[in-house]
């Protein structure tokens, strides 16, 4: 499989894992020393075990299935380094009663190690209103 196809498969695995609410396949695709900047606190998480724990907490917060639609996926690779950037739409009902319906920007930095692509850097963000500092979760592509 060529690098672009393999990196697209990494994103496909992510979508399937979120749909299954199963952090195990996500953790298996992460480098042991991954750095993650997710939209949920804390500001950053380091290490596969900590990221897996945060992912499990995210999944456990949902009373419903989690909708996770990827759009505008762009893949770039050169040798053993690759990047996947995309928008994702996350939806669902939280156990606390709130509804989630927002678009998030994401970039995965990957390295091919021993022939396998691993995520070494996971960065997500939501635009914000500069005047108020409030997240703009209602923006749509």
Tally of contiguous helical segments:
3
Judged by helices, strands and strand pairing, the structural class is alpha+beta
* Largest β-sheet summary: 6 strands, mixed
Mean pLDDT: 95
How much of the residues is beta strand, in percent?
A: 35-45%
Strand order within the widest beta sheet? 2-1-6-5-4-3
The beta-strand count equals: 6
Gyration radius (Cα, Å) is 15 Å
Elements, N to C (H/E): HHEEHEEEE
Distance between the termini: 31 Å
Q: pLDDT below 50 for ≥5 consecutive residues: which ranges?
A: none
Summarize the amount of helix as a percent range.
Answer: 25-40%
Globular, elongated, flat, extended or rod-shaped: what is the shape?
Answer: globular
Question: Could you please describe the fold and organization of this structure?
Answer:
The protein has helices spanning 3-20, 23-28, 48-60, and strands spanning 30-37, 45-46, 67-78, 81-93, 99-113, 116-125. The chain has 141 residues and is of the alpha+beta class. The protein has a 6-stranded mixed β-sheet with strand order 2-1-6-5-4-3. The radius of gyration is 15 Å and the shape is globular. The model has no long low-confidence stretch (mean pLDDT 95).
How are the elements arranged and paired?
Elements: H1 3-20, H2 23-28, E1 30-37, E2 45-46, H3 48-60, E3 67-78, E4 81-93, E5 99-113, E6 116-125
Parallel strand pairs: 1-6
Antiparallel strand pairs: 1-2, 3-4, 4-5, 5-6
């Amino acid at each position: 499989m060529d690098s672009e196809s393999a990196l697209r498969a990494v994103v496909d695995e992510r979508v399937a894992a979120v749909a299954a609410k199963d952090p195990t396949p996500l953790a298996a695709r992460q480098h042991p020393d991954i750095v993650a900047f997710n939209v949920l606190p804390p500001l950053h998480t380091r290490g596969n075990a900590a990221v897996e724990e945060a992912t499990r907490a995210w999944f456990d917060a949902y009373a419903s299935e989690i909708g996770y639609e990827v759009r505008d996926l762009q893949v770039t690779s050169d040798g053993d380094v690759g990047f996947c950037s995309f928008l994702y739409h996350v939806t669902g009902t939280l156990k606390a009663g709130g509804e989630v319906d927002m678009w998030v920007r994401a970039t995965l930095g990957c390295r091919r190690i021993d022939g396998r692509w691993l995520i070494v850097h996971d960065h997500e963000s939501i635009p914000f209103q500069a005047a108020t500092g409030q997240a703009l979760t209602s923006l749509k592509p």
